[in-house]
Amino acid sequence: MPWKTEDVEHHKRGLTTKQKAKWVETANGALSACIGNGGDDASCAPRAIRIANSQFSEATGGFFQEIRDTRELQLILPIGKYHSPFYGEFEISKETCEDMAANWEAKVLGERSPYIDTDHDGGAAMGWIKELQAQEAGLYAGIEWTEPGRELLEKGLYKYFSAEIGDHMDIHTGLKIKNVLIAATLTNRPFMNTMPEAHLSDRNTPPHRERVKIVIVKG
Description:
Distance between the termini: 31 Å
InterPro entries: Phage_Mu_Gp1
Structural class: alpha+beta
Radius of gyration: 18 Å
Number of domains: 2
Mean pLDDT: 79
Low-confidence stretches: 57-71, 202-214
Number of helices: 4
Pfam family, one: Mu-like_Pro
Shape: globular
Helix content: 10-25%
């Protein structure tokens, strides 16, 4: 370890060259995140392999297809330095976003998926986060909107995102894991004002300007 493409056949057979490269990227990212949170090779390697394998499902004919769909990604957390009356000065860096994406891949929240609610009410899901990517501008999410969530956006009742991030304690090991996306919410009172509006993933949706609010959870 780290794994290479020639190692993939030992753990997952039948993948294409492109899929093997994705398997290696996911496995090594999950391994790095696990070790960075206090684990060791012996405990982290099997977990990283399971995470990488979970990206693919066996289809008819013995071939494997990627589970992850190609939904449009939306920026939910921008990179930058900020000043808040509640949290003081803080920075969201590319490394912060990479940590959150890796922690999502590693399923540090268990089987609970980060989701979208409204005004941080912890209530019904307006959308489910199905993918996270760290890019140059910040953290991007692939969102599967529910019908209530679609209706809120279509009617213009909510326009902006608020990301809820913080530390998470593993209930089995007691390890505190930093930089975890807990949830996101739809809000009309954003803290940040640097991004496009929250929108549905329809390709004919016109571009907008967005603002994003961030909530930092103290661990």
